Amino acid sequence: MEIWDALKSRHKAIADRPLLALFEDVDRADAFSIQLQDMRFDYSKTNIDRDTRADLIKLAETTGVSAKRDAMFSGARINETEDRAVLHTALRNLDGAPVIVEGVDVMPGVRNTLTRMRSFADQVRDSGVTDVVNIGIGGSDLGPAMAVAALHPYHDGPRCHFVSNVDGAHIADTLEGLDAKTTLVIVASKTFTTIETMTNARTAKAWMLDHGGDPKTQFAALSTAEDKTEAFGIDPDRVFGFEDWVGGRYSMWGPIGLSLMIAIGPKGFDAFLRGGQAMDRHFQVAEPLENMPIMLSLVGIWHNQICGHATRAVLPYDQRLRYLPDYFQQLEMESNGKSVQMNGADADTHTGPVVWGAAGTNGQHAFYQLIHQGTRVIPCEFMIAANGHEPELAHHHTLLIANCLAQSEALMRGRSLTEARKLMQAKGLTGSELERQARHRVFPGNRPSTTLMYPRLDPYTLGQIIALYEHRVFVEGVILGINSFDQWGVELGKELATSLQPIVEGETPATGKDSSTSALVNYIHTHRE
Ligand code: F6P
User: Which residues form the active site (predicted)?
Assistant: First the structure.
């Protein structure tokens, strides 16, 4: 496509331009920022100039982003490889218009489930339950686990724990010390077949029975497979269902968010939904230039597909967002880690980037060295609140903000050899030693970053952030021509694990396995006690 070539030529022409030079445009900071309510997204510290931005917007237009967006919101079956609509947005369409799938408005069903969740959550919060254990994995774990940690200041319900790994250590460590008589176990699984979740659920059931609890009244299930939840022995009254048009990694807005609702209460959960809904409305109506999800996507496309930066770091300066990078890894990498386009052709460019990161400032003392002085450029996505939740510790928050701002400034500015020499001279070094030491203190600079700022990390703001990134992934997927809503790439490993289970047990021989796998199985057989 011509527009891709145009963007690549632009990149060639400006690759060595210093980022700081762009700030000769005195309006740059505002012109390359988007304000939505109290949230500000600043992408001015990237090498995108006005012409490049116009071309990026043209790319979004040429690839049909707005039409696809409208199709998604309208309930069209845009997840073509699974023949499903994509309507997680309906879960937060609190007082919005009807959403029609196959001629039927899905909103009454959504509202009915939400009402049931609210009354169940209130009941749990009032009933003396001390601990909630959510058993789920991937999209049935990462969202609520991340959000419960993020919204700790709003947490006034029972303690919440999350068990995901099939490693027995996870459930053993979690259940240790819990009272089986006052614990609620929520089995969260869209399909109710996921081996990790079902294994953990059975273990939790046995634990509860052994320790005087009653799984009949202390288990609940969140799933699209209500026949399977019943077969597991969970009363239909304690099952919260959802439809196949909610993808696992997009599901925390509905029943999968039950543990969050129990933690922060139905009102807090409503605020979370409202934040997501506000981002949806903005995404649907704002012009591309003013559209936060679209511009965030275009920045992503620019860095990954055009500039060739294969990874991006998510760097929330908020200890309570420490699980956000994990959550984004599934959201982004399971959605856009594809090699085949929607039309069956091979992808003609790299698809989703490697997403990683950690909460600031901890990352600064771990991997930022490579971000500043390594040979690879890693676009960084900073986020920070203007306020913390600890007024008595406001000086901590000042330091946190200063660190966040210092990093994006340092990445952009860098430090030249001349500046490094001066520093070494000031330390009294001379001659070849000065030269040698100075070189190690050079920062190349020109390393791009974006910054997302908001007044405070409350439920509404978290809803905005998550919906922002969901739409970002969607827009990038449309531009790349891939389906962001399937995940066939997780299947092969699951199938092989099933076939390996009896081999590991020693019930069947490792016939047909490669010699490495056979030897590794042998090692296990020799060493397993
Ligand atoms: O990893 C594959 C996957 O299907 C994810 O997409 C999903 O979030 C996770 O497994 C859990 O699936 P389920 O909710 O059906 O147990």
Answer: 334, 365, 494
Q: How far is the CA of 190 from the centre of ligand 1 (A)?
A: 7
Q: Tokens 């992408």, residue?
A: 43
**CA dihedral in degrees (250, 141, 194, 313; nearest 10)?**
70
Distance CA 40, CA 28 (A): 14
* Alpha carbons 438 and 420: distance in angstroms, whole number: 5
State if residue 79 touches ligand 1 by the CB under 6 angstroms criterion.
Answer: no
Per the annotation, the verdict on 494 as an active-site residue is yes
Question: Is the Cβ–Cβ distance between 364 and 399 less than 8 Å?
Answer: no
For residue 194, the SS3 value is: coil
Which ligand 1 atom is the nearest neighbour of the CA of 191?
15
Ligand 1 geometric centre to CA of 249 (Å): 8
- Under 8 Å between Cβ of 220 and 191: no
CA distances to 68, 168, 477 from 481, rounded to whole Å, are 11, 40, 6
Question: Which one of 45, 161, 190, 334 is the catalytic residue?
Answer: 334
Q: Which atom of ligand 1 is nearest to the CA of 249?
A: 8
Instruction: Give the integer Cα–Cα distance in Å for 83 and 342.
Output: 12
Q: Is the dihedral of CA 26, 31, 34, 38 positive or negative?
A: positive
Give the number of the atom of ligand 1 that is nearest the alpha carbon of residue 256.
Answer: 14
**Mean pLDDT of the region 25-32:** 97
**Helix pair 258-285, 459-480: axis angle to 10 deg:** 60
Residue 268 has what pLDDT?
A: 98
Q: Please, which residues have CB within 8 angstroms of residue 214's CB and are 6 or more apart in sequence?
A: 208
Other Cβ atoms less than 10 A from the Cβ of 52: the count is 20
Tell me the pTM.
0.97
Average pLDDT over all residues of the chain: 97
Q: How many Å apart are CA 416 and CA 406, to the nearest integer?
A: 17
- Alpha carbon 163 to its chain's center: 18
Catalytic residue among 2, 102, 287, 365: 365
Q: Is the CB of 496 under 6 A from ligand 1?
A: no
Write down all domains in the chain, each with its CATH number in brackets: 2-62+286-318+325-389+399-486 (3.40.50.10490), 88-270 (3.40.50.10490), 489-527 (1.10.1390.10)
* Catalytic residue from among 12, 350, 494, 525: 494
Alpha-carbon dihedral angle through residues 381, 328, 54, 50, given to the nearest 10 degrees:
0
